[in-house]
Amino acid sequence: MKRQTTVAISCGKVLKVKAQTMIFTQVQSDDEDDRESVASFNYINNSTEEDFAQIYHVTLIEDGEIEEEDADAAPVELEEGVKATFDELREVNLGNIEDPRPIYTSASLTQEEEEAYIMLLHEFKDVFAWSYKKMPGLDPKVAVHHLSVKKGVRPVKQGQRRFRPELIPLIETEVNKLIEVGFIREVKYPMWISSIVPVRKKNGQIRVCVDFRDLNNACPKDDFLLPIVELMIDATTGHEALSFMDGSSGYNQIRMAPANEELTAFRTPKGIYCYKVPFRLKNAGATYQRAMQRIFDDMFHKNDECYYDDLVVIEEARGPSL
């Protein structure tokens, strides 16, 4: 089958889209007839150009669609997102061959700076977690995720999806891992049941995602204010040293409210389970951001900036951050 390519378009500034806006895209072509067709417009519901407040014409340059016999076999280069930096990095192992603990330092560091950072990281390496088992999770006094399902909403039980036979043992292996680390537990007689969507990772293993759309639609939006990304980026300008940290499996360190756990029930070939952590649930981001701002309250907008599980420590000069 053909997989449609998804393209991110940067306009160099925030694109303020108003009501009745149409964005018309066309792949660049060397054919003269195709170039002339850019001027043509396929209107929806017999609309005319005057019916739209704004119209954008965007020409895309791409190598063509990817032919795949099965979507499961399609490339996954973008699964983990694009790289946030173009700095050359060096990998440093804080562990050993049997128990690797990789971290990455900038190649632009001087030898003295790199040695100082590595010495510091070695001293506090037990603070970081390289596996699920070593994540104690946040104290419930700091953060707990609640699901406030709207009153009168009828529970939805999604049907069992069919999977190719060779996928089933991979799904069961991933489910066993989640059980072992305490992220999920078995549940009986749940009112809500969601289906799973297995996604193949770069290493060939399977990530078990859950289709929580019905449950998420039944929950109101948490209006907790999130930081404005543009202002956070501006706050880092003029600083010589930036240290980036990414929360490892951050959402899995926040517990669900016990009374809401069974609302997250999902069906697998192995059985029905529910989450003890708010993975892929509506408002989980707001819960996580609220927890981070509570933890780093006296440091926000002074020494660090935080957006969800991404944290950057800023210093005017190189060295003091140590």
From TrEMBL:
Stored SUPFAM superfamilies: DNA/RNA polymerases
Mind telling me which CDD domains this protein's record contains?
A: RT_LTR (cd01647)
Where do the Reverse transcriptase domain residues begin and end? 199-314
The UniProt entry, under PANTHER family, shows: RETROTRANSPOSON, UNCLASSIFIED-LIKE PROTEIN, TRANSPOSON TY3-I GAG-POL POLYPROTEIN
Q: What is this protein called?
A: Transposon Tf2-12 polyprotein
Tell me the organism. Sesamum latifolium
